[in-house]
Amino acid sequence: MTVHSPTAQHRSVPLRANAPRLAGQWARRAPLLPALVFLIAVTQLPFVATLVISVLRWNALDPTNTGFAGLRNYLAVVTDANLRSSMLNTAVLTVAVVLASLVLGLLLALLLDRRFLGRGVVRTMLIAPFLVVPVAAALLWKHVLYNPEYGLLNGVLTEVWRWFGSDHPPQPDWISGMPKLAVEAALVWQWTPFMMLILLAGLQSRPIEAVEAARIDGANAWQVFRYLTLPHLRRYLELGGLLGSIYIVQNFDAVFTITSGGLGTANLPYTIYQTFYQAHDYGQASAAGVVVVVVSIVIATFALRLVSSLLRNEAS
Amino acid sequence: MKRTWQPWGALAWLAGILFALPIGWMVLTSLHSEPDAATNPPSLTAPLTLQGYREFFGASTGQSSWPPLVNSASASIGSTVLVLLLAVPAAYALSIRPVRKWTDVMFFFLSTKMMPVVAGLLPVYLFAQKVGLLDNISYLVVLYTSMNLPIAVWLMRSFLAEVPTEILEAAALDGAGLITTLRRVVAPVAAPGIAATALICFIFSWNELLFARVLTGVVAGTAPVYLTSFVTSQGLFLAKVCAAAVVVSLPVLAAGFAAQDKLVQGLSLGAVK
């Protein structure tokens, strides 16, 4: 891409030629404008409003007592133990789910990259969890798999123990016993297919000649993986990790459904939802929202840099 | 290829079955009677019945579950149509006849997607309250459009960029006008991409819970909001909840498998082909 400085251009282009040129530019821009205007109005204005509300003293239950609060809401956000723990939860949840589904997704992609009988069927089965409506998936895990009395997990334990002649199988209460792991497992189940699809696309775009050359030179499977496949997959791993992070940082459905934010699993989206939906403290909820945005911008900057490197390849 | 014992294939099958097992179990449970659905150990061979589905559609309570499904369908289809109306011209101005600095515009679109929804929730709610748009499907249509528009623009651009420049130039040399070029040259190449984009936008809108939960009530509640009524359920309801989960997930499963080839490209915003 070339960079024009507008002043230099005005000087070099004769005045009369300028008018149709400008008209041409606007004709080019016209199809873009409806989408841009719509998006600015619907996504940017609310955020500006959030910024404004975040410095106000405003509780819906006490509507007469409103005013400027300065940075007090932010102070409350940073010092509130609930919000701090939900920030930590968001970080732990995101990192755990993204890493686990990346590793599982990589293993599955490596398996699917081989030729075997019924590969299409297996691929379909592996994608399916991603295509269950998130609330439905969370309900499925909460009631049908985790339930301590009649859930599938404990049912299988009973059955297996019975095979060995025992009437006293362990019947753990999965959600109360390990609430965070329970939420994470359900999310990993849904997000592993996503990672697998991206990594599989990466594997299949791998230059086959290099692998064959390495094989002829006597490289074993591990060396091919370590020195050819993994470096090639790096970008795909990064992309999967970053896109996954963007979605899981915002996760609401699983936390809301499986634990209802209880048992120490509340993450930031859930906590913000609760502050404004139940406690009606608009100022503090907005300040928390701004904090989430700041955290997201940090992640997003990395994501944008990565995607831009992919796009630049195309633009040049 | 020689037919030998394929250990990797067997392992892949095992993984596939493990991942699909919860879904298979959900379908089986939805076809059991409530007492058979809640046994320990599980009753694999219990007789099959459609009672769970009948209950879901209000056999005993008289409360049909069609309204939330219809609401979800209107919100998803409405926003998908609106997204395409906005995204197709925008993508055209970003690929076939690109504006200057088109990459900057692309990044603006993407950056809005990276802003957490929850940060704008309160103003969006207060605005709806003020102008009387609470519990109204058309408000969800607008919000879902903004949620999916960046994805659609990125995707559509990557599909339109696949239209070879030479063909466009040849069409221009032959004196083809804008409409003819769009219809005869661009549309045939881009049609599968447009279809995949539509399906992916449909899935995201259908799945959405947070906005719908906060902004709708009895009238405009969507299917995911309806499902949240099961969050605190007690007693015998497993077959019904499984039937509900199956019915609500069916459109997404259908759309997802229809778009399977383009799913990766869509989910990675066109970055991975």
Automatic annotation (TrEMBL), chain A:
The chain crosses the membrane at residues 32-56, 91-112, 124-144, 181-203, 236-258, 285-307. Keywords: Cell membrane, Membrane, Transmembrane, Transmembrane helix, Transport. One of its GO terms (cellular component) is plasma membrane. It is a multi-pass membrane protein. One of its GO terms (biological process) is transmembrane transport. SUPFAM superfamilies: MetI-like. Residues 87-303 form the ABC transmembrane type-1 domain. It comes from the Bacteria. Belongs to the binding-protein-dependent transport system permease family. This is Sugar ABC transporter permease.
UniProtKB/TrEMBL annotation, chain B:
It is a multi-pass membrane protein. GO terms for biological process: transmembrane transport. It is found in: Cell membrane. The keyword Cell membrane applies. PANTHER family: ABC TRANSPORTER PERMEASE PROTEIN (PTHR32243:SF52), MALTOSE TRANSPORT SYSTEM PERMEASE-RELATED (PTHR32243). It comes from the Bacteria. One of its GO terms (cellular component) is plasma membrane. The chain crosses the membrane at residues 73-94, 106-125, 137-156, 185-205, 211-230, 237-259. Keywords: Cell membrane, Membrane, Transmembrane, Transmembrane helix, Transport. InterPro entries: BP-dep_ABC_trans_perm, MetI-like, MetI-like_sf. This is Carbohydrate ABC transporter permease. It holds the Pfam family BPD_transp_1. SUPFAM superfamilies: MetI-like (SSF161098). Belongs to the binding-protein-dependent transport system permease family. Residues 69-259 form the ABC transmembrane type-1 domain. It comes from Solihabitans fulvus.
